[in-house]
Write a structure and sequence with these properties.
The complex is a heterodimer of chains A (212) and B (284). With 212 residues, chain A is mainly alpha-helical. Chain A is built from 9 helices and no strands. Chain A has one domain. Chain B folds into 2 domains: 213 residues, 3-Layer(aba) Sandwich (Rossmann fold); 62 residues, Alpha-Beta Plaits (2-Layer Sandwich), CATH 3.30.70. Classes of the chains: A mainly alpha (212), B alpha/beta (284).
Chain lengths: 212, 284
């Protein structure tokens, strides 16, 4: 699987490097402002810069013919799917570092940043992009990359439905007392991870019978 | 490789592969000839697993493709593939591609790869997207030759190559099978390429295999014969491979000119003529 992941990362290498530098710069600038809204954005932003390239890789694969060629390699179809999900997780981890590292440094040397707001928005940022990935992968394997615009719309709609659906339903279960924000962020993140695992299983089933 | 009674149906489509059976012996270069849409790519796709077969059996090195899949597709280590279109992501360089392949093929041979790249005069640091079609094909061939494959499946692999490069690649293919332990299945529109290097020939038309023969046998024995329809009625139909009407007479490709009646006149035919006859003529 290492070779497949490497291929995915090389395919998006230039954009990943560019977005990583951009992400760090923007997070640092936003941190300097010390504004609450800016700090929220600083936590969120990296998750929308890097992991989306895992979806772009799927388009590159089709455009270059690699999607057909990789089926002839000595690897199983589930490893091919696995490599796409692992690529996403690697980019998500990189985003996590880009979001968290400036906050940790700022907290240690300048002013307290590692507070409830940071952790809530970190979990929500992770939840949103993981949820988006869960829908995007399945829809791409079902509809094909040529329906990219439709897939983006449906994935965003799905993520919004999960997020706002949970924010509507969760108070009925746990109430809206002290610590609700933390509970909501944690539950949303866990739910997104579960959806991501489900998405991996569904993508495998869809890809098993794919013909190219 | 053995393909037996291979069928591939497409829902709602006129085209289907019907009962395709052939084998590729060790040491052979098998030319796979057919018009566009005849079923060459579909046949190769079902062999390689990019398409699902509807019926029939495909064996690679004695193992069915179902068993190969069950065992994690590892047998594909021994199969080198070149498709007629692009194969690799355009954002990689030649050396990045080598790093990818090194982690995919256990038998990856970096030295062979680098030698091929130098031989084909491909730039090491340029992105593949900047390559011409010919350069991309050369790169695909370099990869196919660099993991100790025992079988090469090449779909229009010589397309897009200039005459010098084509000659060079054909020489490499001939050397590849020379020791008798490896073989090649090569589809090409260029009958001249196939004529140059193929040892066996397979002709396919509208999803049906119409002939498998060795090239020397075909060139030695097959002739085009001409006569009236009445004269042809005296001929054993099993030697009549394809026919076409021409000015009230009937031209037939026959597999054996012995015992043809005196009213039928035969002549030797070129490889291209025989190929065209098989692909364009009517079955007997």
């Amino acid at each position: 699987m290492k070779g497949l992941v490497l291929n995915n990362l090389y395919s998006a290498e230039k954009s990943i490097k560019l977005k990583a530098v951009l992400g760090i710069a923007v997070v640092v600038i936003l941190l300097v402002t010390k504004e609450t809204i800016a700090l929220r954005m600083a936590v969120f932003l990296p998750f929308f810069l890097l992991p989306i390239h895992a979806f772009e890789v799927l388009k590159h694969d089709v455009k270059s013919g690699w999607d057909k060629y990789e089926l002839t390699l000595p690897v199983t179809r589930s490893k091919i799917i696995g490599s796409k999900y692992v690529t996403f997780l690697l980019l998500l981890t990189a985003s996590l570092f880009i979001a968290a590292l400036p906050f940790v440094i700022a907290h240690l040397f300048f002013y307290p940043t590692l507070n409830a707001l940071f952790f809530n928005y970190l979990l929500r940022g992770i939840g949103i992009i993981v949820c988006l990935a869960a829908a995007t992968f399945v829809l791409t394997y079902k509809l094909g990359t040529e329906k990219a615009d439709t897939i983006v719309m449906y994935s965003a709609g799905f993520t919004g439905t999960v997020f706002f659906g949970l924010s509507f339903l969760l108070p009925m279960v746990v109430g809206t007392g002290k610590g609700f924000d933390e509970i909501f962020s944690s539950v949303f993140c866990i739910l997104a991870v579960l959806l991501f695992i489900g998405s991996y299983v569904i993508s495998n089933v869809l890809y098993r019978n794919k013909e190219l | 490789m053995e393909v037996s009674q291979l069928n591939k149906l497409y829902r709602g489509a006129d085209f289907a592969l019907e009962d395709i059976s052939f084998s590729i012996p060790y040491g052979a270069i098998v030319g796979f000839i057919g018009e566009n849409g005849a079923g060459k790519t579909t046949t190769m796709g079902t062999i390689l697993g990019t398409r699902k077969k509807s019926q029939g059996s495909i064996k690679l090195f004695g193992e069915t493709i179902e068993d190969i899949k069950r065992n994690g597709n590892q047998k594909m280590e021994e199969v080198g593939v070149v498709f007629d279109d692009m194969n690799f992501s355009g954002y990689l360089t030649v050396m990045q591609l080598a790093k990818v392949m090194k982690h995919i093929y256990k038998q990856w041979d970096q030295k062979t790869y680098v030698d091929c790249i130098h031989r084909f005069r491909l730039p090491l640091k340029e992105k593949i997207e900047k390559f011409s079609r010919g350069m991309s094909m050369k790169l695909s061939i370099a990869v196919a030759l660099s993991h100790d494959a025992k079988l090469l499946i090449l779909d229009e692999a010589t397309a897009g190559l200039d005459p010098v490069a084509r000659e060079e690649v054909l020489e490499i293919f001939a050397a590849f099978v020379k020791d008798g332990t490896r073989s090649i299945l090569l589809s090409s529109h260029m009958t001249s390429d196939i004529e140059k290097i193929a040892t066996e020939l397979i002709f396919i038309r509208k999803g049906k295999l119409i002939l498998q023969a060795s090239k020397p046998e075909m060139m030695d024995r097959y002739v085009i014969a001409e006569g009236t329809p009445e004269a042809w009625q005296q001929v054993d139909p099993t030697i009549m491979l394809a026919r076409q009407e021409k000015e009230g007479k009937m031209e037939v490709l026959v597999s054996n000119e012995n015992n043809l009646p005196p009213l039928i006149h035969s002549r030797k035919a070129s490889f291209e003529e025989i190929s065209l006859f098989l692909l364009k003529g009517e079955n007997r």
